[in-house]
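Hi support team,

I've been running sequence recovery on a batch of backbones for a student project. Most finish fine, but this one hangs at about 90% for roughly twenty minutes before it completes. I'm not sure whether the input is malformed or the queue is just slow. I've pasted the C-alpha cells below so you can try to reproduce it. Let me know if you need the job ID as well.

Thanks,
M.K.
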C-alpha cells in the first residue's frame, strides 16, 4: 500500500486558489471522498480542510494513482493549473 498526500497551504498557494480548493461543508467533503473511493486503486481517503489549508491523503494500491486523483481536484477547483510545487 502507498500513501498519496496532496497539501495546499499558504506556503504553496495564494488565497484565491485555497478558497477554490476548500470544502465549504461536510457534504462537499463526503462527495469528494465518495468520488475518490470509487476508484478501484483507492483503499482509504481522508480530507483536512481548514481556513488556511487543504490536505487530502489517500491509501492506494500503487504509486501511480495520483494523476487521476489530481484530475478530480482540478475539476472541483475549475482552475487549469495548481499551486507551485517546491
Amino acid at each position: 500500500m502507498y500513501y498519496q498526500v496532496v497539501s495546499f497551504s499558504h506556503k504553496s498557494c495564494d488565497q484565491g486558489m485555497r478558497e477554490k480548493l476548500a470544502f465549504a461543508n461536510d457534504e462537499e467533503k463526503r462527495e469528494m471522498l465518495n468520488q475518490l473511493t470509487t476508484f478501484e486503486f483507492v483503499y482509504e481517503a481522508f480530507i483536512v480542510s481548514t481556513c488556511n489549508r487543504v490536505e487530502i491523503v489517500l491509501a492506494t494500491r500503487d504509486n501511480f494513482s495520483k494523476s487521476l486523483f489530481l484530475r478530480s481536484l482540478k475539476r472541483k477547483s475549475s482552475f487549469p493549473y495548481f499551486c507551485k510545487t517546491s
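--
Follow-up from support: It reproduced on our side and the slowdown came from queue contention, not your input. The chain is about 35% helix and 30% strand. No action needed from you.
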